[in-house]
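hey m, so remember when u said the tokens were messed up on ur end? i reran from scratch. heres the input so u can diff it against urs
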Amino acid sequence: MEDQATMQVLAKRYPKNCLLTVMDRYLAVVRNMEQVVMIPSLLRDMQLSAHGHQAQAGASDLYSYFTMLKAIRTDVEHGPLPRQEWRAKAAGGKANGAETEAGETEEAEEERVSGQLDLEAQLHLHFASLHHILTHLTLKAEEVTRRYQEKTGQAM
């Protein structure tokens, strides 16, 4: 199945380290994960291993990763939520007027500082970070899929 995900990415023929390639690969691997994981609740209480070692106590289980990876896929495919909606979601929808006003003041300050920095340097920093994060999340999606297949006895 992983070959199908790779084939979808390779069909577009972007350069290997192109952000679009990384995004396409992430989307394909998460779609594959969603197709393979038919009973997500089986992932509860299974820990994500860290390079062949057991994960630390208190770490998120595979079910948490599964739901997070799906939510991020939606953001990558459809674009991010507007800033206000994202803040409301992050705050659990419980922001009061004072918090909103403080957030708007903070936002204005961020924009002033951002305007003073070199835009090309900002782009490079965010681009490199996004590339790294998507690559890391792709590996996590592959591991969730692999661990589910091991648990259910599916051929790999």
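this time it looks ok to me. The CA atoms of residues 114 and 122 lie 8 Å apart. if urs says something different then somethings off w ur setup not the seq
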